[in-house]
């Protein structure tokens, strides 16, 4: 459900802004959770999502905004979810169909509000899901973003079953690859309180720093999908550490 005032704000957006997007809301272990509405004052909003100002992509891979968007200030709330539970993220009107989706988590601490004092920078991030090019070619194949469009703008992720209890940032990241040599990063973060589960945490080889994990000279990100030899390639591997699934 979108508040009328938010609809009003959104209809006044330029076409440029509407060519982008992000996560508006979540369903966490079956419970509807509000995201932060960009283009609308922070005052009076209460969300599980870190604040973001607009739909624009982040293009500077060294920017603090790459962590949890801009300004990325802390969320007011946490959503509780058992390890093994399901998170659905909603991207209403998402416009792009070439590129992967990567979902990351970072441990904030053992207290239910530990993320309040964690800005997200540093080598704390681990992937729990990544979907890139599943079949076909880079130019026309089945990218994660096509799955997102085909599933009514909904992206589903399962929290690893054996993950230790604690407060976590969950970071969804779309990387749109339709602009030649200019990958667009769309990160948003949610505050989670993960319960039950096990006692596991990812080892060093699974961890990455954000910013830091993506590089300006990374050929599989800074490329053009429109020209050979790239466009007809059928293999594309997302850079960064392997996905952690627990044992
Ligand atoms: Cu866009």
From TrEMBL:
<dbReference type="GO" id="GO:0030245">
    <property type="term" value="P:cellulose catabolic process"/>
</dbReference>
<keyword id="KW-0119">Carbohydrate metabolism</keyword>
<keyword id="KW-0964">Secreted</keyword>
<dbReference type="Pfam" id="PF03443">
    <property type="entry name" value="AA9"/>
</dbReference>
<comment type="function">
    <text>Lytic polysaccharide monooxygenase (LMPO) that depolymerizes crystalline and amorphous polysaccharides via the oxidation of scissile alpha- or beta-(1-4)-glycosidic bonds, yielding C1 and/or C4 oxidation products. Catalysis by LPMOs requires the reduction of the active-site copper from Cu(II) to Cu(I) by a reducing agent and H(2)O(2) or O(2) as a cosubstrate.</text>
</comment>
<feature type="signal peptide">
    <location>
        <begin position="1"/>
        <end position="19"/>
    </location>
</feature>
<dbReference type="InterPro" id="IPR049892">
    <property type="entry name" value="AA9"/>
</dbReference>
<keyword id="KW-0503">Monooxygenase</keyword>
<dbReference type="GO" id="GO:0008810">
    <property type="term" value="F:cellulase activity"/>
</dbReference>
<dbReference type="InterPro" id="IPR005103">
    <property type="entry name" value="AA9_LPMO"/>
</dbReference>
<keyword id="KW-0136">Cellulose degradation</keyword>
<keyword id="KW-0732">Signal</keyword>
<dbReference type="GO" id="GO:0030248">
    <property type="term" value="F:cellulose binding"/>
</dbReference>
<keyword id="KW-1015">Disulfide bond</keyword>
<keyword id="KW-0624">Polysaccharide degradation</keyword>
<dbReference type="GO" id="GO:0005576">
    <property type="term" value="C:extracellular region"/>
</dbReference>
<feature type="domain" description="Auxiliary Activity family 9 catalytic">
    <location>
        <begin position="20"/>
        <end position="230"/>
    </location>
</feature>
<dbReference type="GO" id="GO:0004497">
    <property type="term" value="F:monooxygenase activity"/>
</dbReference>
<protein>
    <recommendedName>
        <fullName>AA9 family lytic polysaccharide monooxygenase</fullName>
        <ecNumber>1.14.99.56</ecNumber>
    </recommendedName>
</protein>
<keyword id="KW-0560">Oxidoreductase</keyword>
